[in-house]
Amino acid sequence: MAKKSISTSSVSDSASVLDISSKLLSWYDVYGRDLPWRVVGAHPNPYVVWVSEIMLQQTTVQTVIPYFYKFMERFPTIEILADADIEDVLLLWQGLGYYTRAKKLHECAQRVVSDFGGKFPKTYAELLKLPGIGPYTAASISSLAFDKPEAVVDGNVIRVISRLYSMTEELDQIKPEISKRARQMMPQRRAADYTSAIMDLGATVCTPKNPVCESCPLQSDCGAKQKNLVGEIPKIVPLKKVQKSGPLFWIENESGSVYICKRHEGLLSGLWEFPWMAEETTKDMPPAFNFPFESDWIFTKKSIRHTFTHIQLSLFIYRTKTNEQDPDFLVFQKKTGGSFVPQNDFKDYPFSTLMKKVIHETEDAKNKKMASKKTEFKDMNLKKTEFKDMNLKKTEKPKIEKPKIEKPKIEKLKIEKPKTEKIIKQISDF
């Protein structure tokens, strides 16, 4: 079966690959981004380049910058990083995601110190042999740190080249062709600047949505622009997310400390967590499960939702309080290898963003409960005060002012004594 060819629309006849590279470099000299790991005019530090490139994998620049500053402050040299405890590295990494990167970063630092005296190898082939360094990172370090003409292909580069050459097929089909074009476009001089230029163009001008074509130095050469296909290229088929759900167990001892254990495999390997399990499901509810040990479990009616690259996860929180010497619990503890930790000490343990959500949800529920109790207590006090006021009103006799009644002045009537003769006469007449 013949191999399917990729349909591409070449840049305009007047433009050559070198013309495009030259335009990109001229644009970069004016509009290149100011980034903490990139100092214009200074010789790049391979250690700084390497740390930034590992952090930038699957993560945006704006998210990385504050983590980069904290990391370099704590581990300013590769020797200090190599000597550090992995838990210290994970603690600084928490929240950045993809924790395998941090573990490989630490392992790679130890290898560079032990095998290369703390100096990164300069060739692409040697870089590929180091832990956590694949083709993309090897090309990035080789190009950005040592100015070698190694083509770097990330999401920004894919977008620029696929639009430039109007590649309309699905992304998986055109990746080999994009890599080929990227190598052709790479100049022999100023390789580091060119790599930064094409990545910056994709990040600031040739963006996934609402690209600013009128500001692009390659607009007159762009096949997608000429065909009005910029918004449709590259053609990316979204990954179908798998839905998983299950219980998470919040276990407290009699003093209020919480049981945590360390994960030893998978994406969250090396991080501390509350015991949990999840299975693929079609419903947003926990599948049937058995509790880890017999206890008075309470369903909190709280759920945590978290999205990984390809997984939509829902965890439902169940709480219990247990005696550390309970036989069933001891069997569970032996299997999981965890221990009870005071909640105030959570800050000293590296947790994933998922587990931080659990902590936040639990603390939030506790604060609301405390606030509710305070409000109830306040209301009770108010009612007591009202009752007291009512009693006061009942016991206090109102002061009634007696009205001043003035005694009327009674004038003495002057009564004239009748003449006896007349009275007798009147009686006799009657």
Keywords:
430 residues, alpha+beta, Endonuclease III, domain 1, four-stranded mixed beta sheet, 7 strands, 10% strand, disordered C terminus
Report on the structure:
It is built from 15 helices and seven strands. The protein is α+β, with helices and mostly antiparallel strands and 430 residues long. Strands 4-1-6-5 form a four-stranded mixed beta sheet, covered by helices on one side. Strands 3-2-7 form a three-stranded antiparallel beta sheet, with no helix packed on it. The chain folds into two domains: 17-232, Hypothetical protein, domain 2 (Endonuclease III, domain 1, Orthogonal Bundle), CATH 1.10.340; 242-364, Nucleoside Triphosphate Pyrophosphohydrolase (Alpha-Beta Complex), CATH 3.90.79.10. The model is unreliable at 410-430 (pLDDT under 50). It has helices at residues 17-31, 46-56, 61-74, 78-83, 86-93, 100-116, 124-127, 135-146, 155-164, 171-185, 191-204, 223-226, 327-336, 353-395, 420-429; strands at 242-252, 258-262, 272-273, 279-280, 298-307, 311-321, 339-341. It is 45% helix and 10% strand. Belongs to the Nth/MutY family. It catalyses: Hydrolyzes free adenine bases from 7,8-dihydro-8-oxoguanine:adenine mismatched double-stranded DNA, leaving an apurinic site. GO terms for molecular function: 4 iron, 4 sulfur cluster binding; 8-oxo-7,8-dihydroguanine DNA N-glycosylase activity; adenine/guanine mispair binding; metal ion binding; oxidized purine DNA binding; purine-specific mismatch base pair DNA N-glycosylase activity. Its cofactor is [4Fe-4S] cluster. One of its GO terms (biological process) is base-excision repair.
